[in-house]
Each structure stands twice: as C-alpha cells, then as structure tokens.
C-alpha cells in the first residue's frame, strides 16, 4: 500500500502539442489547439489514463488547404503512442514520470484544381463528349476535378485533345511557377493551385474560294490573257508569268511558300 501510494504521488509533467501550431485537439474532453492554446503542459499522476482526440482531417477556411494527422508520438517508444483500438482519431496515453511530451504530427496538403470541362448534372460520364484527357501524375481525368497532394509534391500534367479538338495551351494560377504552353506541364505544388488546359474545336482551313483538303493534288498555275496568275483559286498579278510546278499540298507549307512568292513578285 505504501509503495502504491508513493507511485501515485509521482507527477508527470507532459507537454502536448501539434507540430503545426493552432490545429484543434481535445485532451480528456477539453479542447486545445485554438489560438489561445497552441501548446498545453499538463501535470498527470503516474499511472493515470488519458485520451487525446484529434480530427483526422482539418481544413482552412477556403477549403483549399487541409491537414491530415498521424498517430500520437511520445518520447517513450515503449509507451503506446498510436491510436486506440476503438477510434483511429484517439490516442490513449498512460502517464509515466519519464513521459515528457506527446506530439501530434500533421501533413500539409494543397488542392490542385483542374478546370476545363464538367459533365452536365445527372448525365452518365461515358456519354459526355469531353474535349480532351488530362493525366495528372499518371491519373486520367476527362473533366474538371479537385485533388489534394502533399506540399512540395512534383506535379506532371499532360494534355491530350480528343478527336475534333486541338490543344492550344494552359492557363495557370500565380502559384504555378511553370508558365509553359507545351503539352506537358511540370511544377512543384507549393500552394493551392489551378490549371486549365484549352481544347478548342478543330476548325478546317478554307481558302478564299474553296476548302483545301490536306491530301489534294493542286493543279498547275495557269496564265490568263490579263497576266493574272491563279493557284487553287487565288489570283494575283505578275510580269514573270506563273510557271510554278505541280505539287501535293500536305500541310500549310505550300500556302506559306505561295504567299512569300506573291509578295516578292506581284508588284514587278
């Protein structure tokens, strides 16, 4: 009895804190972690039982930064530092004279908002015609989504337009350090961020008179009595005639060559 009484008289001075100040925890039913209680130092009799409850996930007011908690840690490895068998959000602590601190660690996670297309409400996503597919760190997305990643996570976003659409670039929030307009966008996530790929519809090129097909064979340029040259429906004047060879137009290269030729010789 005397030995037991002496053990009960031993007091453990325990410092309880979160590694990120201000996050909410509850110690034996009493709330801590607000601005008034960033750190608590409590005096517990040796052998007494205590519980520390924490929210597994806590959000900032804007909802774009969140904190995810880990099991409690103490300076005594043999003391059960983890969560209880009943609730993952609760730590059961036995006071010990050698126990000096209990720490609750939190991870910072930032939201990455992908915004470019949203399937209409009450519509099966398989029937939505998304303009493109965006892979974020290997995860496929066919519409806008918000995803959370650990702070400083490297982000790799790849944009692939679907048939009938083209990719023309990115719009990114100021927190995104990379301003590239390439298909692949890479940056470290150091704050909440937003990225938006642009997928406009593909518009076929049309000449002033008739459409040009990518694989059509263009006929030879003709010389008229007014010395007007015509090439695929476009006319211009030249004193040098129109002896350009026949070629196959497979891209806009032919049009660019013709435009340079016209500007150089049209006024001679």
What do you see in this structure?
With 268 residues, the chain is mostly beta strands. The chain contains two helices and 21 strands. The protein folds into three domains: 2-107, Roll (Ubiquitin-like (UB roll)); 115-198, no CATH class; 217-265, no CATH class. 8% of the residues lie in helices and 42% in strands. Strands 1, 4, 6, 7, 9, 12, 14 and 16 form an eight-stranded mixed beta sheet that branches. Strands 3-2-5-8 form a four-stranded antiparallel beta sheet, with no helix packed on it. Strands 11-10-13-15 form a four-stranded antiparallel beta sheet, with no helix packed on it. The longest helix has 13 residues, at 253-265.
Mean pLDDT: 76
Given the C-alpha coordinates, what overall shape results?
elongated
Under CATH, the topology of the largest domain can be stated as Ubiquitin-like (UB roll)
Radius of gyration computed on alpha carbons: 35 Å
Give the strand tally: 21
The number of domains is 3
Please report which band the strand proportion falls in: under 5%, 5-15%, 15-25%, 25-35%, 35-45% or over 45%.
35-45%
SS-derived structural category: mainly beta
Largest sheet: 8 strands, mixed
Ranges where pLDDT stays below 50 over 5 or more residues in a row are: 79-87, 211-251
How many individual helices? 2
**CATH architecture descriptor text of the largest domain:** Roll
**What share of the residues lie within helices?**
under 10%
